[in-house]
Amino acid sequence: MVKKILSIILWVATAAALVWLFVYAREDYLHTPLKAINLISETDTGFVSKSALYKEFESLCKEFGRSKEIKAVDMIAIQKALESNAWIENSASYIDLDGTLNVSYHEYEPWFRAFGKNGHSVYVTREGFVIPSSRTYTPYVLVTSGNFELRSDSITYQLTDTLESDRNLLNALHWCEAIEGNDFVGHCIGQLYCNKRNQFELTVKGFDGRVIVGDTCDASDKLKRLEIFMKQRIDSPETKTLKSINLNYKNQIVCTKR
Description:
elongated, three-stranded mixed β-sheet, about 25% strand, about 30% helix, alpha/beta
């Protein structure tokens, strides 16, 4: 009986000691000064300036590098700062045992750039997210312009087919998918254009006229016909006299002379 009581007392004492050690270690950790900020970019996009992020986080961590304790670092404010950045898709932040604030983030990766009727431009990702353009970074992507109703604010949002203003951008996204699916045409396309009738046209390298592809219906088939035409006729003297190539008719290529 005595042995059992002593065993229980020993287990209770051990548990209490472990709890005390945990509390002590936690308090000691929370009172550790913040030593450094480590920014980890998971992409090579270039929209987000590391130096600007450093300054922003140093401002949030006032007295950084002197007496700022880990427990006083506002992690919620840091997370909100990351979430409010229009070019950051997702992020994670934590302070390690050495007292270093680690911030990892993943930038949106643009697929094409769209210029609207008012001259405003945005980027669109493969997933259909619209992100603002940047004054400091211009990625090399396909450009589309024309009859686009673009928002003038600097927020990120996802395209939806329920809004009329998003329709043409969604169609541009579908055209980019079709262009990517045709390697030959993809290397020849200079620009994508949406006219006032919401029909799309292509600028093709080596051809001065318009290539009319219309809506996204049978997009892959239209591009395949364009590929066949270019391989067979692009170097022909007659092609130089063409004003337009219209692929908007099923199984046909309709050409118009100047």
